[in-house]
Amino acid sequence: MATMRALIHDPASANGLRLDDVPEPEPGPTEVLVEVAATSLNFGEVTYLSGRPVGSVPGWDASGVVVVPAAEGGGPPVGARVVTFGWSGGWAQRRAVDVAELAVLPDTVEHAPAAALPVAGVTALRALRRLGSVVGRRVLVTGASGGVGRFAVQLAARAGAHVVASVGSAERGLGLRELGAASIVVDPELADVGQPVHGVIDNVGGPLLARGYALLAPGGLALSVGMASLQPTTINFEQARIHNAGAQLEAFNIGAAVGPDLAYLAGLLAAGELDAQVGWLGTWERVDEAVEALRGRRVLGKAVLEVSSSGS
């Protein structure tokens, strides 16, 4: 059986991860096998790593080159440069992925920024679509300094929204105006947001989600995308009935078949109309450093690992 190097879940290791040899995945009929060049870390997958089976290979995002095409056809050929999504297997030298969950990369897009796209970029894109038309409307993005947040700021501004970016500190807000934020709020109470907003893309959860929901205009929508605060949310629905009638709150999920959305985002990268905001880049041997930086809120945007094709 062919083997490969991968980051596996090991509770005995410092951050629950270590490099080891594992069996190479065998692609199914509608899957391609990809030689991974870069992968990214998402706050959710490093935070909830303990829930994975010991010895399993985590990793949602990966970019690389097709080495085995899908047996049933319909996917890219050998040698195609692709960006891929899945709920496991991305932190490895090779990944099997369904053709519906990948996109071929434009020649000018490198693997590191491409690897930042799948979870964060597609989440931001689909959440923004769920808000409906935002042209000329105020949209609040909480946790705007993170991966999803920085994509959401860019895409919402590009769609014509007046973007209010909420961050935990002034330092975390660096670069957000250049990405399209009309205003930056460093205020846990969100009092500085001012007038009501049409939509909220919340990446923080806890009390901040409740405050964002309370800021909705009648008929507005708040999307709970993440829970970086790791705190539960308590909503005063009586207040909501009185002050923002018809406002809605939804738990957002990314969904499946992200290939077309990945292709769209990769096209924006190629055209210079989107910035992947890679705030930390290093080899996967430095994974502990990357995880600690991400958990410690020291990464502006995305943390990306370059994957070695051989050796450790």
Structural class: alpha/beta
CATH homologous superfamily label of the largest domain: Medium-chain alcohol dehydrogenases, catalytic domain
The CATH architecture of the largest domain can be given as: Alpha-Beta Complex
Largest sheet: 7 strands, mixed
CATH level-3 fold name of the largest domain? Quinone Oxidoreductase, Chain A, domain 1
Q: How many strands in all? A: 15
Strand fraction equals 25-35%
Radius of gyration (CA) equals 20 Å
Provide the number of structural domains. 2
Gap between N and C termini: 19 Å
According to CATH, what is the class of the largest domain? Alpha Beta
Specify the number of helices: 9
Overall spatial form: globular
- The SSE order reads EEEHEEEEHHEHEHEEHEHEHEHE
Q: How would you state the average pLDDT, rounded?
A: 95
Any low-confidence stretches, pLDDT <50, length ≥5? none
- Give helix % range: 10-25%
List keywords for this structure.
single chain, alpha/beta, Quinone Oxidoreductase, Chain A, domain 1, Rossmann fold, six-stranded parallel sheet, globular
Summarize the structure.
With 312 residues, the protein is of the alpha/beta class.
Structure, described:
It is a single chain. This protein is of the alpha/beta class and 312 residues long. The protein folds into 2 domains: 145 residues, Medium-chain alcohol dehydrogenases, catalytic domain (Quinone Oxidoreductase, Chain A, domain 1, Alpha-Beta Complex); 129 residues, Rossmann fold. The protein is 25% helix and 29% strand. It contains 9 helices and 15 strands. Strand 1 and strand 2 form a beta hairpin. The longest helix is centred in the middle third of the chain and has 14 residues. The mean pLDDT is 95.
